[in-house]
Each structure stands twice: as C-alpha cells, then as structure tokens.
C-alpha cells in the first residue's frame, strides 16, 4: 500500500470553518483531479511551488472570506491538519 500513496501523491482538502463550527468545502486536490466549491469556484487555487506546497490562494477577496480555514493533507497513513486565520482590514 505504501507504493500506492507514492504513486497517487497527496490528497489536499481546504475547508472554511464557519461561525457555527460547520465546515464549508473550498477546494479538493487529488493530483489530476481538482475541484472548487460554492462561491470559491474560479477564485481559489493551490500555489504549488513544489510537491509539498499546499498554499491556498484566494482571489477577489470579499468580507465573507474572513475566518478560519483548515487544510488537510492526506498521504497514505500520514495525515496533517493545519488551521489558519484570514483577517481582512
């Protein structure tokens, strides 16, 4: 199974954590398959400067974009979850 995760790479999922603690899907990247959701369609992408870069880029920022975002990186048995806050001024 370890070889399969190397062959297919990382699965990267970005979600926005709403005020009521629900999560809204933003972007899902599974290598060749990429999908954006809702009002994020056409406004988000991964920077991908290298194979380990999961930086989310949001264009045409709106006040509704303010909040906490969660990134999940899944590669076989190794998962990593990071939360970041986006503040607008």
From TrEMBL:
<dbReference type="InterPro" id="IPR013106">
    <property type="entry name" value="Ig_V-set"/>
</dbReference>
<dbReference type="InterPro" id="IPR007110">
    <property type="entry name" value="Ig-like_dom"/>
</dbReference>
<dbReference type="InterPro" id="IPR013783">
    <property type="entry name" value="Ig-like_fold"/>
</dbReference>
<dbReference type="InterPro" id="IPR036179">
    <property type="entry name" value="Ig-like_dom_sf"/>
</dbReference>
<dbReference type="InterPro" id="IPR050691">
    <property type="entry name" value="Hyaluronan_bind_Proteoglycan"/>
</dbReference>
<dbReference type="Pfam" id="PF07686">
    <property type="entry name" value="V-set"/>
</dbReference>
<protein>
    <recommendedName>
        <fullName>Ig-like domain-containing protein</fullName>
    </recommendedName>
</protein>
<feature type="domain" description="Ig-like">
    <location>
        <begin position="1"/>
        <end position="87"/>
    </location>
</feature>
């Amino acid at each position: 199974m370890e070889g399969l995760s190397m062959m297919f790479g990382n699965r990267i999922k970005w979600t926005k954590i709403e005020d009521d603690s629900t999560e809204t899907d933003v972007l899902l990247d599974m290598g060749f398959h990429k999908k954006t959701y809702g009002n994020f369609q056409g406004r988000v992408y991964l920077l991908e400067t290298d194979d380990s870069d999961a930086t989310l880029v949001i264009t045409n920022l709106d006040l509704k974009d303010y909040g906490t975002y969660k990134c999940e990186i899944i590669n076989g048995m190794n998962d990593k979850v990071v939360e970041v806050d986006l503040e607008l001024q």
